[in-house]
Structure formats: structure tokens, C-alpha cells
Amino acid sequence: MTEFVELAATGAYVLILLLLFPFGLHRLYLLWLRFRRDPGHERDTWTGELPPVTVQLPVYNEANVVERAIDAACRLDYPSDRLEVQVLDDSDDGTSELAARRVAAWRERGVDVRHLQRKSREGYKAGALAHGVERASGDFFLILDADFVPEPELIRRLLPAFDDPEVGLVQGAWSHLNEDDGGWLTRAQAVLLDAHFAVEHEARCRSGLFFNFNGTAGMWRRECLRDAGGWEGDTLTEDLDLSYRAQLRGWKGVYRDDVRVAGELPASVRSLEVQQERWAQGGVQTARKLLPAIWRSGESPAVKMEATSHLLSHLAHPLTTALGVALAAAGFLGGVQGLPDWFHALALSLAVLPFLLFYGVAAWLRGARPAAGLRKVAEAMTLGIGLGVPLSGAVARGAVDAGEDTPFRRTPKIGSGLLRQYSVSLRPVRTLLRLGLGLLLLVATARHLAAGDPAAVPFTLLFAAGYLSTAVSSLRGAAS
């Protein structure tokens, strides 16, 4: 019986590593695409008369940041007779009063800014954006989440790409207002996001593959929105959904890595979980919705395969969590039975090292020095592992529910003043689960060493650090 258990555990362990291997290989493929060709010269000037532009600020209970967001939008450098600002306010707290006062103040200064409120949150953010489109005068739409603070020249820098009539979407890069304010947590988030923009977006855009709008810091052509079917609220990632539908209709997207828009990173583990769970669940919902259409389309096999890999990328979360459990179990069984040390080390390396390289390149592209870059990569890996527990649940929910079944939960934001408090309840079950897994992995590390299985030790410690650090940060956030 013992031999059977050991054999089954080893088989499960190897299967998990084999299933994780394609995700690591995909990261290497994106790195290769990123450096395979030069992006070419981006259009820097708009030819002809400047078109009317509508700036949309979707807002829901954003008291900490709404005034700053309205001020930044109203300061954008664009002719006043061709600029319209919409504050799309679905709030049910004191945010609406703050927004109304700022809107009134800017209207007195001659800015065409409007405070639009709906009777319900139907469709959530997608519904608010669609509501605004119906009432907008612009030919182009700049969308800014409430926690983003654009530079005044943002419209003038994104607009020239639309000189190509086939371009329906232009996405700018995100930078980070508070990267160094939240310790390891915000530094790690910055690396994860930098990898998404500086590597993934660049790779896909340079290679003519589908890439996604990120919900903010980007512009849409009205004609593209209409042709693609407009904003739909049947997934939690309306931005991913619409950008893929637009590209399936033949519209092109452009990514501008040289155009940075600063946004706020979640300041606590629980706030980050709210954001990441929404992205993971919505990503799986979008895959369910659009993959059949993608494979029926006339796109090339390369585009179809990459789109599939992109939309299913969140499946790595349950596999990574399963690997952590398997590492702990292997330690308690006295090591991984029947695997030569060299094979074990190679298998773990193939599953994990591509992610280390992926985030390392992102840190380098964003100017990190070697020592700081190594620290940031370690923090990013630690955070990614620690988020695996809640995101595995989000993936499962996305696989079985429809978008209408789950409320759109906005990411809590602090803003710069800390004058208004926010709270996000601690989830004790997931915190205890992470603590338990982390402690089990520490014990398993010792047992791997005692069993003469040193190949697993660095990886076991990495997973232990991921679970323990996020659990401790959750507890600290709840106590503060």
C-alpha cells in the first residue's frame, strides 16, 4: 500500500510538472517574439484637423481618488472645443457629491465635463461605458480608470496611431504611482505588470498577434466600438472581451510602450486579490465566450494558437498551487520516489526558470540594476505563488459561471491623502490555508534534505516563501 501511495504521488507530481511546462515554454516564446524584430517607427503626428475626443472616467465608490481623476482629465492638453469629459458615476456613497463639486468647478472654467449617473449598475463598468458612448460627441474615446493620473499630452501622443484607418485601438503602458510606497508587495506587482506590458504586449503587437486593451490608459475609435458590438457586461473582463472581438472583425491594435500612464497599485494583499480574482475569472469567461469564434475565424494558425494560450494563461494558477501541494507531499513521503536527482532538478527547472527569466527581462527593460532586479524578480515570483490559492478558485468560478452571475467588484484605492479610509475584509480560510501550506513546505524542505533530495529544496523554499509572505501580509493588512 505504501509503495502504491508513493508511486501515485510521484505520478501526480510528474504530471503537474508536464502540464506546467507549456506555460513556461509560452513565456520563452513571448520573449523570443519580443526581441525578434524592431517595432519600427511609431506615428508621432496627426495629419489633418484634430477630431473630437471624449474622455471617459468610469467611477464606482472612488472617494479617495475621484477628485484627482477629474482634475487630471480636465487638464489634458487638447482644444477645448473638441474635448469632452464624462464622469460615469455609478457610486452609492459620498463619491457622487465630491464628483459633482469638481465637475461644477471645472465647468465654470470652461471645460466641457459632464457628470453622468445611472439608475442602476446594470452591466457594471461595461454598462457605464456603453451608457457614456450613447451620449458622447467624440469620434475617439480615451478611457481612464479613477486611480490613473495621465500627463496632459496623453491624447496627443496616442492619437497619431489612428492616422491608419485600420487601427481601432491604441493602448499605452502603465507606470506606477506608488511602486516604492508599499514595500515588497507593490514592487512585486510592478514587475508582474511590467512583464505584461514590456514583454507580452510588445511581443504580440510587433508580431501581428491579438493583444488586449487593459481597461484604462488607452483610446478607441468610435467606428471600431460600433463594428465590434460595443461594450458587453457578460464577462468580468469587458476590456479583454471587446479588444478580441474588435480584432476578430479585422481592426488593428497598437501598443505604445513609450507612452506611460501612472496608476495606483493595490496597497494590500486583499485589495490585490479583489483585482486579480476579477482578472482571472473574467479571463476564463472570455475564453469560454470567444475561443470557438477564434477557431472558426480565418486567422492564421499562429494567431489562433497564441490567442488560445493568452486566454487560457490563468490555468497556470491551479497548476502552480497543485505543484506546491505536491512538493509538500513529496517531502513528507521522504522525497520523490523513483526519479533520478538530475531528472528531478531538470523537470523543476523547466517548470519554474522560464518565469524567472521572463520577469528578469521585464525588470531589466524597466531599468532595474542587477541587484535590485534579482530582488524584484524573487518578490514577483513569491507574490505570484502566494496568489495561486485565491486565483485557483477564481479560475474554477470562471469555468462554470456566466458573467452576470458574479458582481463586478472594484479594486479599493487609497489615493494620495489617506483622508478617507477603505476596508476589505480578510478571508480567514485562504489565509490559514496559505499559512498551513507554507509551514508544511518548510517541514518538507527539511525532509527533502534528509531524504537526499536536494534538487527540490530551492523550489520548496520558494513556494514556502510565497505562501507565508502573502499570509503574513494579509494578517498585517487586516490588523492595520
Describe the fold and architecture.
It is a single chain. This protein is an alpha/beta fold. The protein has two domains: 199 residues, no CATH class; 248 residues, Spore Coat Polysaccharide Biosynthesis Protein SpsA, Chain A (Alpha-Beta Complex), CATH 3.90.550.10. The chain is built from 16 helices and eight strands. α3 links the parallel β2 and β3. It is globular, with a radius of gyration of 23 Å. About 1% of the residues have low confidence.
Summed up:
The chain is α/β, with parallel strands linked by helices and 480 residues long. The chain has 16 helices and eight strands.
Secondary structure category:
alpha/beta
CATH class of the largest domain: Alpha Beta
Characterize the main sheet. 8 strands, mixed
Q: Characterize the overall form.
A: globular
Task: Give the beta-strand count.
Answer: 8
Q: Which spans have pLDDT < 50 for at least 5 consecutive residues? A: 417-423
Overall helicity: 55-70%
Rg, please?
23 Å
Instruction: Output mean pLDDT.
Output: 90
CATH topology (fold) name of the largest domain? Spore Coat Polysaccharide Biosynthesis Protein SpsA, Chain A
Strand order of the largest sheet: 3-2-1-4-7-6-8-5
Order of helices and strands: HEHEHEHEEHEHEHHEHHHHHHHH
Count structural domains: 2
| CATH architecture annotation of the largest domain | Alpha-Beta Complex
Query: What is the count of helical runs?
Result: 16
Please indicate the percent range of residues in DSSP E strands (runs of 2 or more). 5-15%
Within CATH, the superfamily of the largest domain carries the name: Spore Coat Polysaccharide Biosynthesis Protein SpsA, Chain A
Q: Give the end-to-end Cα distance, rounded to a whole number of Å.
A: 49 Å
